Amino acid sequence: MLVSPSANRVYARTASALTVAPAALTGGLTPALMLVGAAAAGVCLALALVGFAVGFWVRDHVRGLLLALGIWFVLLFGIDLLLLALAGSAWASRHADVWAFPLMINPLSALRVTMVFAFERTAPAGIGTGPVVGWWLEHAGVWLTVVVTGWITGMFAISVAGARRRVDL
Known about the structure:
By secondary structure, this protein is mostly helical. The protein has one domain (46-167). It contains eight helices and no strands. The protein has helices spanning 5-25, 31-57, 61-86, 90-94, 96-105, 107-119, 131-138, 140-167.
């Protein structure tokens, strides 16, 4: 069964509200915190749509759950650990933009980089950045919006294709 877009918006708003509600109730709500809540809701929605896509394409429920968990773990840890293993190599130093590309297209990594370098204003000390990575760090909020929107759109399209395949529409 396909969830309506209005239900997805309700889920995203609920996730956003749960992220910022404690600060709002105690009088600590700031514009930056509202942006963090919106970003967290967007990433939450993108990952929920990954689950929908897997659920529509994998017929066995246990295998679908395991695949969805595997995708989540790869997005959460796998890409970062692989890139961390490659970080000290001469190749990674020479090709910083290529090395950072998997981080740039991963919504969880893009959220982490945005939080650390854009909202917290942490300086990327000691990293040799190429032009693409430099642009990403300067426009982290814009890039996070593009990545999350792309993941949401892509996973929704894959979910719809899986739902049509399943019911033979």
